[in-house]
Amino acid sequence: MGQAPSQPGPPGTKFRVIGAGMCRTGTKSLNEALSILLDGPVHDSGVQSLGGSLHQVNNWLEIMKHAPYAKTLAQRKYVEYLLADLTDGYVATVDCPAVTLTPELMALYPDAVVVATTRDTESWWRSMEFVNGMMSNWYIAFLIMWVPKVGVYGRWRDLFRQMALWRYGDDMIVKETLAKHEEHLREVVPKDKLFWYNVADGWEPLCKILGVPVPDRPFPHNNSRDDAARTYRELVLAGVVSWVVMLSVVGLLGWMFWGRVPGRELTGAVRSAYKEIRYSNASTR
Question: Which of 23, 32, 103, 223 is the Cys-Cys partner for 28 at CB 3.0 to 4.6 Å?
């Protein structure tokens, strides 16, 4: 939430970082920091899967549909193919749902390092619970169903629940998810490839991980609680406007159709004749 989708760079752009931190651990800040340090676009899967091109949105839905059930080599290669198509032209990935696919991304990019943003569990859960409260309510998927691209959120949410159940044993992100996710990373990522990073520490630790100089500019801090709330309000407003437009169009079409229904003119003539008869009868009394 709170960031615009990015456009891929030239095909074959060197992919260097798998951002594996759970959402609400500073992934949006890492996104901007990596785009500065690596001089290329970062594929924020949370943003691209709901606000990117239709091709990206559909591919992410397809990945989320198949990844939890990919048992055979052909099924796993299909998921990898879709991931390769989505990440071509980017220097890194961050956020959900990509973080649940760290092993699959490592198979695609064996030379990439895994940078996992992390934070204190209590502060993370306060932030995550706040976002869950907005995006997991019963009405938001219905409200935004006519908004272009993000209208698939209802389906996205259902598919991500399958992903979370597959990886963490819970059908949504709960307080224990952060620990489960980080333990999963320790199990699947080689120690020399896995780097833990707190965005509160600024440039130096991240630059050391990547082997690049510290830039002469402030470290970006994006997607605060206020940013998330503002994005949510914008979604609600867009949803309300889309429903007003949709209902107006339906009403206009209904009015146009009703005005052309065969026999309606006859009904109107009969009604007029009936009024005239009543008037005549009243006059003769």
Answer: 223
